[in-house]
Design brief:
The chain has 250 residues and is an alpha/beta fold. It is built from eight helices and nine strands. It comes from Bucco capensis (collared puffbird).
Length: 250
């Protein structure tokens, strides 16, 4: 509880981790606020069904609060966004102040603040993919402020968890994106860094994942614990193995 997990991918797609955490927390009985900036609801729902989770039912029960970023942004751009219960659009920064993500933060806080009848086992904020906010015009400082305030509310006050996916490319010239990614790495309790293989595509090994447990944040003088595995994505699960020990090699 109270942990911030960063999902980082480089030269590959780490979205399989988002689907894992979404289904994991829903099955665990947690209240989930999912800020989906990359795909549509139907996409996440079709993958979740393969993993044995029904997102439609979770929404109807109030367990899942789903913010479909693509649709909301289009509605806002074309003037079709309707204010719900007098509240402004979470993405109003697009047409107003790009350094002000207060409306998005207010949406997250309202979604996860427990009501008197709530009996969920915890609160979870899931964001896929945070760097899209930069593409929509938000400033790096505003994005980092947004995450900071979310951590105060979700991790500190509600004792919940935050899971955020970011895309990065070490050779990229996008300085704003790398600034946000590197800043989040310094503040994360756990980093799951998915990378494509340096040798290129392989049908039996889809990439490698570096698991970094930030022990140094606890100021105990210990170094971070780092584990490295390779993986293969299958239809309904993912197989992990030590480097060089895939079934194809053995």
């Amino acid at each position: 509880q109270g942990k911030f997990t960063l999902l980082r991918d480089t030269r590959t797609d780490g979205s399989f981790l988002v689907h894992h955490f979404l289904s994991f927390y829903l099955r665990a009985g947690c209240k989930v606020c999912f800020v989906a900036l990359l795909q549509s609801f139907s996409h996440y729902n079709s993958v979740a069904q393969k993993l044995g989770v029904n997102l439609v039912a979770a929404k109807e029960q109030g367990q899942l609060v789903f913010l479909e970023g693509l649709k909301s942004c289009l509605d806002l751009w074309f003037g079709e966004e309707k204010e719900q219960s007098g509240e402004p659009s979470p993405f109003q920064f697009i047409s107003e102040d790009p350094s002000n993500l207060q409306a998005l933060f207010a949406f997250v806080r309202t979604s996860l603040t427990p009501a008197g009848s709530d009996s969920w086992k915890g609160s979870v904020l899931l964001v896929d993919d945070l760097c899209v906010l930069l593409s929509l015009g938000a400033t790096p400082v505003a994005v980092l402020d947004f995450i900071h305030y979310c951590r105060v509310v979700v991790c500190s006050q509600l004792k919940g968890n935050i899971v955020v996916l970011v895309h990065s490319n070490e050779d990229s010239e996008d300085e704003e994106n790398e600034l946000v990614v590197n800043s989040l790495c310094h503040h994360s309790d756990l980093i799951l860094w998915v990378e494509g293989l340096a040798t290129g595509f392989c049908k039996d090994v889809h990439g490698q994942i570096k698991i970094i447990k930030r022990v140094s944040l606890e100021l105990t003088g210990e170094q971070d614990h780092v584990q490295l595995y390779q993986y293969k994505i299958q239809d309904k699960n993912v197989t992990f193995f030590a480097r060089g020990l895939s079934a194809a090699v053995l």
